[in-house]
Hints:
Blueprint: H1 2-20, H2 38-58, E1 73-74, E2 79-80, H3 103-108, H4 130-136, E3 153-158, E4 162-171, E5 174-181, E6 184-190, E7 195-201, E8 204-208, H5 211-219, E9 227-235, E10 238-243, E11 248-253, E12 256-261, E13 267-275, E14 278-280, E15 282-285, E16 289-293, E17 299-304, E18 309-312, E19 315-322, E20 327-332, E21 336-340
Antiparallel strand pairs: 1-2, 3-16, 4-5, 4-15, 5-6, 7-8, 7-9, 9-12, 10-11, 12-13, 13-14, 16-17, 18-19, 19-20, 20-21
Amino acid sequence: MVGSVALSLLGxxxxxxxxxxxxxxxxxxxxxxxxKSVVADMKKKSETASNQLKEIIDRPTYPGTNALSHxxxxxxxxxxxxxxxxxxxxxxESLVTSDGINVSWKIQNGFDLEDPxxxxxxxxxxxxxxxxxxxxxxxxxxxxxxxxxxxxxxILGVDTNSLGIGLSxxxxxxxxxxxxxxxxxxxFDVVIGDRLWLMATSKGLEVSKNEADSLKAKxxxxxxxxxxxxxxxxxxxxxxxxxxxxxxxxxxxDSYVELERKDGISNSFxxxxxxxxxxxxxxxxxxxxxxxxxxPGEGEMGPYRVGQTFSYAGKEFLIRSATTNKVSLxxxxxxxxxxxxxTTP
Length: 345
């Protein structure tokens, strides 16, 4: 009778512990005759179970450097650990989600990795989307930490007009420069030391030796930027040389006039004599460049020209080159190169 009652009591204790006590549970051994009292045996097994439970509770949990390195299985009544530990694969924070934002950046700034609206939102209401803040390394949760305003600038339109300059002839100390714009040619005689202003307008090309003319053209909107050049030097290089194809000696004349451009594109250019009607000079972009800013209250910007410097957002920007797909700017005095892309890439 006493044995039956003890066994029933032991079963109840085991059931209760299985329901409420998580951990790695080892079943009791069968109650074979050992010469010990049933109560002592139960007490010993109870202490063993309590120690096991304490060990499980004291184990560190995630997050932490000593976190469990294996999975935990849970049932309605039991919590137990598998004998063989299974490694847990950590999140690769270098991955980039489909919106182009780095996983670790989203975690750092408290964004939901599964939220598709994160990139387009402006959580700090500073006028820049979270994607723009990610691209420029600013804080998306702090309105005082924002990218430069030029991030909001895009290409509205670029005219592809170009100005060709060649050397059509020379006589004593005078040299004839040939300018070509929109299939129209204009010859202009110069000497070493001359300074010219080249103005590409809707009416064609104007060449002047007076800076005041270029300023006037800019004021009336005829030319937003005149290209200043200096006729720097003449280099003579002519004689006879062997033609590798015909194996004969022929006369050659690779003499050239050196022009120095004096605007933002400060550089020297060689203008060689035309060879059998083919220009051996340079070609410069002179088309109007129009930009547009999505910053409230700004809108369209320009027109500008390659080589021109303009002010924006407290910075000076030099236009180095321009195509319909990209306008390259040089930020001064930072020395940072800025690429402006179309409104619809």
